[in-house]
Amino acid sequence: MGLDRIREVAGRLDIRFDCPVITVGGTNGKGSTCAMLESILLSAGYRVALHTSPHLLDFNERARFQGAPADDAPLARHMAEVEAARGQTLLTYFEFTLLAILRWFQSCQPDVVILEVGLGGRLDGVNLIDADCAIVTCIDIDHAEYLGDTRELIAHEKAHIYRPGRPAICADPMPPATLIRYAEGIGADLRLFGRDFNYSGDRQQWAWGGRSQRRAGLAYPALRGSNQLLNASGVLAALEALRERLPVSQQAVRQGLATVELPGRFQVLPGRPAVVLDVAHNPHAAAHLAQNLDNMGFFPVTWAVFGAMRDKDLAGIVGHLRERVDHWLLTSLPGPRAATAAELRAGLAALGIEPGPQRQVRVFDAPRDALAHARAGAEEGDRILAFGSFLTVADILASRRSPGGAT
After folding, report:
1. Dihedrals φ, ψ of 155, to 5°?
2. Which fold has domain 4-259?
3. What is the value of pTM for the model shown?
4. 149 pLDDT more than 90
5. Which residue, among 24, 242, 38, 288, has the nearest Cα to 136 in the 3D structure?
6. Counting CB atoms within 10 angstroms of each CB, which of 95, 330, 378, 407 has the fewest?
7. Residue 140 · residue 282 · CB < 8 Å
8. Is the CATH code 3.90.190.20 the one for domain 267-401?
């Protein structure tokens, strides 16, 4: 891991932006933050380029301009440019495709570019771009084999997306000292939740206050979840910091928050029984998922379709949800990193979750098979939760749009 290789190829391609660039890193909440930024800035009339990862169904989701995914032809053309420019320089899949997407963004002549960090920050390919404003959302333990096994180590990695003299937003209510030390050490304009910006609200609306700006009478974001106001607060802090270059009206904020969409983040499908999709794949995300499930109200029975990577903290994830799930439908996923359904069943057994008269623990080859079983067994008033890896949610979304797929 490192930036030397991708920086060398980016130099050959002359990748640079004259418009503001916003980089978004963090453990959880990055996707929601990027989606809200995009929605608000589009509502304000700007030409917005957005890079996110991973994708759910189509690779093109990673490259959006004016709210729409890129077409195949321009991406293929720019991938050919990257291939020609790299010569003998080796690039990872993420680095190669990121460079192609950045080249496409250049050709679109955007007013603002939003880039989601893939992994960590310091050594992530996105960090080759000097962001005009960088946001770190929440910080928790994930990808410990690369980033470290404490919040302090992980925060230090993520803080490297900050730049000297430029706005550095942290939306984590309890930022590790390593992040603060790094930001202050390089002379970044650090803006902390609770110190430099905050929010308040009631059942009908909420308000946000920053260093020199206040926004009141806001509707709650269209994205579901108890943590979305924290993500939205980081977004508004970034917009306050960039207000001279990217002025945004109150109406644009309201409209952007009201219309934002992001599949797979506490997404509730229409119909009954209720089906909830969530890409929660670490303990921190699972804790928020548990709180969101509690806020849904009473359901007699909850069925869980669960698939995950082998390197995830299974005990930490399941610990937040075991009291909220009646039946566990465990699924294998594609790829060498994925845990098999049998491995997940053994992991649950080690945690004391085994089949019994009132509990099913079953294994399936694919998430869509597990969902079909849940639908067949669930009553109309029950709830089905499909969560874990992006691949878990992706397979269910893919089955919904395929001929004969579940609706």
Report:
1. -60, -40
2. UDP-N-acetylmuramoyl-L-alanine:D-glutamate ligase (3.40.1190)
3. 0.90
4. no
5. 24
6. 407
7. yes
8. yes
